[in-house]
Amino acid sequence: LTVQVGKPGAAVNKTMYGLFFEDINFAADGGLYPELVKNKSFEISPNLLGWRALQSGDNLEIYAVRTEQPVSASSPHYLRVAARPGTGDEAGIENEGFRGMGIRQGAEYTLSFWARRGPGSGARGLTASLTAGKTKTLAQAQVTGLTGQWQKYAVVLRATDTEAKAKLKLVLDGPGAVDLDAISLFPKDTYNNRPNGLRPDLVQLLKDLQPGFLRFPGGCIVEGRTLAERYQWKKTIGDVDGREPLINLWNMGIRPRATPDYYQSFGLGFFEYFQLAEDIGAEPLPVLNVGMSCQSNSAELAPITGTSSASAAPAKGPNADAPPSFGTDDPSLDVFIQDALDLLEFANGPASSPWGARRVAMGHPKPFNLKYIGVGNEQWGQQYLERYEPFAKAVKAKYPGIAIVSSAGPRPDGDLFDKASKRLGELKAEYIDEHYYALPEWFREHADRYDNYPRTGPKIFAGEYAANGQHPWDNALSEAAFMTGLERNADVVGMAAYAPLFAHVNAWQWTPDLIWFDNLRAFGTPSYYVQQLFSLNKGTRVLPVALPGQAKNGTDNLFASAVADEPAGEVVIKLINYSASPRPVSLDLAGAKKLGKTGRAQTLASADLQAQNSLDEPRKVVPQASTFSLSGSKVSYTLAPYSFTVLRVKGT
Ligand code: AHR
């Protein structure tokens, strides 16, 4: 192979490799967002989802979900627990968590809740316990001093043991009724010690990818099954206890493993997404609903005409934390456009602007410096364009510097140059969001997908992709082969992200996924390490690579790409051997200056295409480091069977 080190090509975008986050597979509640209580505010339907009555077994009928004089108007339901004297049972409730609660020995958990004594109640307090199985108590604390008025109480529970499936039990200390709401059990240990922060091991796995961007909050959940169930970012900011939950689209039975108890609490909301992006050094990339429900192209469309009922000024004064009112459940396109403009103000506006003030009030005086927004997800054709055009015009008129990621349909083999894409070009969309979920062979066969893509017009945002064959290492290696094509075409491919990102081992709807976790542990799949090797070795400028005899990339199952890492003064070569035999290769680093005598190799390999990492064996397929020698500008290297190798050499 010849690497033209002396003829550097296009710059590689700093944001080239990033993350796609969607609340699917328990990625948010039960995953990244570490609240341990499921349905903490009794707002989900059925209102006692996740809860069990201690008195009289499972009979929750003796407990009533009420709405009179609630703590919060936006979260009106609360639970009245009424102890019945003489039953001999404990009067109280138990929460099951998200497939249990992950509790660590020595760690501290803040239990907080709102409570008030019922009329004439003898119960003045309660005992809170973390339990494991029928008999084990991991932590216990008393809360006393309940009054007839709503008050917030908090106590810290310190665990004496580790348990992946613990439960929280609250028992009244006397006869009578107590009203309870917003019952939260939150670990003190969060990433960067943030209040309402995120699960540290999962954030660390994200950070270790050095992602260029974070796309959020999805995926199909942006749109919702119906427009009424769409993601509304304004409902996800402000006081956590006042955020109104919503059924999760992935609750539905479209996948074999639908999880009927799946909802979005929005504890991880837009403020927290922006903060996460900042914490992991990624550009935030929110995707907004364009006025269409999930993959809809004829039903559930927001009418284009209509007056703007959408200028939802944020609440001021004592109700500043209440979600603002923002239109009806049957909104016109204006509402969606206004939401986008308000989001840009929330992210970047000064403290003196209404939405900028909301950001400042949440503890982030500096702007988030938002540069990109996505408009629609997996939508296409005339109905999309009719909505996209006024949407994009309004955004550009007020915020000309914002780059817009426009949508393309879910069509791995779709025509790149179809009418919609052409029109998006005419409308000067900066990026087109292409998605591909396909078999591994599709990825290997399409490593040239962008070789002939027009060099003018919108760039490509490969916003979701994954090889979805049966064998994890086959999938990962095929993705690596495809990614050499992204890298070779870095002049038109500006951003790319694997999807979906997370999956809970006991609560998933979609495979494959990049990172798996249970309530205590997590691991990256082989695809995770492919992403990491590309991201950490993305370099700054593409170097042309020629295969022997000028063969096409992928000929004889050999794939290659190369970049210069200018700040490091290094040449970086990526090689994929998709064959069962070792493959000797000779490399000529043509035109290179100041070459080192030795180089560093990182190899991700397994002769077994079925190889996978797991919670018990998280490092079965991970990169292995080694060194190699150069002879002048030449390198002789033997690629392992079924391997992805990154070679780094000093040189310019
Ligand atoms: O990543 C899972 C889903 O795949 C996304 O929600 C959607 O955009 C795509 O169809």
TrEMBL record:
<keyword id="KW-0732">Signal</keyword>
<dbReference type="InterPro" id="IPR003305">
    <property type="entry name" value="CenC_carb-bd"/>
</dbReference>
<dbReference type="Pfam" id="PF06964">
    <property type="entry name" value="Alpha-L-AF_C"/>
</dbReference>
<dbReference type="Pfam" id="PF22848">
    <property type="entry name" value="ASD1_dom"/>
</dbReference>
<dbReference type="Pfam" id="PF02018">
    <property type="entry name" value="CBM_4_9"/>
</dbReference>
<keyword id="KW-0614">Plasmid</keyword>
<keyword id="KW-0378">Hydrolase</keyword>
<keyword id="KW-0325">Glycoprotein</keyword>
<dbReference type="InterPro" id="IPR055235">
    <property type="entry name" value="ASD1_cat"/>
</dbReference>
<dbReference type="InterPro" id="IPR017853">
    <property type="entry name" value="GH"/>
</dbReference>
<feature type="domain" description="Alpha-L-arabinofuranosidase C-terminal">
    <location>
        <begin position="463"/>
        <end position="643"/>
    </location>
</feature>
<feature type="region of interest" description="Disordered">
    <location>
        <begin position="305"/>
        <end position="328"/>
    </location>
</feature>
<dbReference type="InterPro" id="IPR008979">
    <property type="entry name" value="Galactose-bd-like_sf"/>
</dbReference>
<comment type="similarity">
    <text>Belongs to the glycosyl hydrolase 51 family.</text>
</comment>
<protein>
    <recommendedName>
        <fullName>non-reducing end alpha-L-arabinofuranosidase</fullName>
        <ecNumber>3.2.1.55</ecNumber>
    </recommendedName>
</protein>
<dbReference type="InterPro" id="IPR013780">
    <property type="entry name" value="Glyco_hydro_b"/>
</dbReference>
<dbReference type="InterPro" id="IPR051563">
    <property type="entry name" value="Glycosyl_Hydrolase_51"/>
</dbReference>
<dbReference type="InterPro" id="IPR010720">
    <property type="entry name" value="Alpha-L-AF_C"/>
</dbReference>
